[in-house]
Amino acid sequence: MKIITIKGNQNSGKTTLIKYAFDNLKHDGAEILEYKVSGHLQDDFTAIILWRGIKVYIQSLGDINDETDEGQMSWIKDGVKNAEKLNADVLINAFTSILDEKDYLAFLSPKIPCFINVLKQIDGEEMTIQRQKKYFKELLPELMKIV
Q1: What secondary structure, in 3-state letters, does 9-27 show?
Q2: Could you read off the pLDDT of 54-76 as tens digits, one per residue?
Q3: CA–CA distance, 139 with 67 (Å, rounded to integer)
Q4: Which of 62, 58, 38 is nearest to 47 (CA)?
Q5: pLDDT tens profile 90-103
Q6: Which pTM does this prediction carry?
Q7: Cα dihedral 48, 119, 41, 98 sign
Q8: From CA 108, how far away is CA 113, in angstroms rounded?
Q9: For the residues of 43-69, what is the DSSP string, one character each?
Q10: What does 116-133 look like in DSSP terms, one character per residue?
Q11: Distance separating alpha carbons of residues 48 and 71, to the nearest angstrom
């Protein structure tokens, strides 16, 4: 399973980018097998899609209430287990920058994730369409390698 992780500070646009990726894959013909709203803000979701013959499990969390490394890792571990259980080819997820990357990498080993770093917003700047497109252009080639 390939893992694409979006890492960023709180309110940097991780969830927005995941939603943008989901919408773009959907518009590119992805079949939605399952979609569930989740998270404490009811703004996040999990989805299973079939896109160009690959099964993608998307886990959007955003900035969870539990900002401890343990809380973040708990959500990530659940996502990885669910993706493995579903025999997903790709997992797209995100975590807040407070999580120690070494812990995350150690947990995923021997899986080799691709990290896409989301830049911190400056002066409360929104995740604009231009920024979404920029980051999605980084994410898409990683998905295309699998197709």
Answers
A1: CCCCCHHHHHHHHHHHHHH
A2: 999 998 875 555 566 666 677 77
A3: 25
A4: 58
A5: 888 877 766 666 66
A6: 0.80
A7: positive
A8: 8
A9: -EEEEEEEETTEEEEEE---S-S--SH
A10: EEPPPPSTT----HHHHH
A11: 23
